[in-house]
Design goal:
The chain is of the alpha+beta class. It has three domains: 85 residues, no CATH class; 39 residues, no CATH class; 106 residues, Zincin-like, CATH 3.30.2010. It contains six helices and twelve strands. Strand 2 and strand 3 form a beta hairpin. It is flat.
Length: 238
């Protein structure tokens, strides 16, 4: 989850603030990154305990630092949310095939809804065990499905790979290689198909122009509802 602030040129130099933020009794190092395509200041709390500040190319870093220091309540709440997500236990809900399923970890083993995963891990890392199983499913299913969709629409990639991407659902390289996020198996088929068709459309239109979105509409007429689902629930998967 990210917090955003539009930027404007500063009229005077802002007060110099430290490159760390204290929130909820914890010190968060502030990592500043300039991005050529950013249009506003963005802050994000990472799993490692940093606050990542993205600054537009021509914006003042000091204004972004001031913005981050003003968001201590949000930073503390976001860190607590991430900490809760990191620890999975019996009863934790997570997405599978477009439905939130409860994890069962008991004497009968480890299950996600009706999906039997494994015995409960000795080290207690239920999250790693569940996600490892889902990644194996993704590696088996997603490349074949993407290739089938591509053939059906005359859009054949050179290769399809499955990765652990942290900020995107998929990518299409200039060489025609499509990379998919393993978390697509946590979505319903219509949403995961949209992601694959989106990337396949880049084989003809390597941009996000109007022509690209017309191509998407041809191969995936219901793309808007899938895009809404991703915007509403996607951060729960990431």
């Amino acid at each position: 989850m990210q917090l955003r602030l539009p930027w404007t040129a500063a009229s005077k130099a802002p007060e110099r603030l430290p490159r760390e933020v204290v929130a909820g009794g914890r010190v968060f190092p502030l990592v500043v990154v300039r991005h050529r395509w950013a249009r506003r200041y963005l802050i994000r709390v990472t799993d490692e305990g940093d606050v990542k500040l993205t600054v537009p190319c021509r914006a003042a870093i000091g204004e972004g630092v001031r913005f981050a220091h003003a968001q201590t309540l949000w930073i503390a709440a976001e860190w607590a949310r991430l900490a809760d997500r990191r620890t999975w236990r019996h009863g934790t809900l997570t997405w599978y095939r477009g439905t939130r399923e409860a994890i069962a970890a008991d004497a009968d083993g480890l299950r996600l809804g009706s999906l039997v995963l494994d015995t409960v891990p000795v080290d207690g890392d239920i999250r790693a065990c569940v996600q490892g199983h889902l990644r194996a499913i993704a590696a088996r299913e997603l490349p074949a499905r993407c290739l089938a969709l591509g053939i059906a629409h005359g859009l054949e990639p050179v290769r399809v790979a499955v990765r652990d991407q942290r900020s995107r659902w998929g990518a299409c390289s200039a060489k025609g290689v499509i990379t998919l996020n393993w978390r697509l198996v946590q979505m319903s088929d219509d949403v995961s198909d949209y992601v694959m068709l989106h990337e396949l459309a880049h084989l003809r239109q390597p941009n996000h122009s109007r022509r690209f979105w017309r191509e998407v509409a041809v191969v995936c007429p219901g793309w808007r509802s899938s895009e809404r689902w991703l915007r509403q629930y996607g951060r729960e998967l990431m």
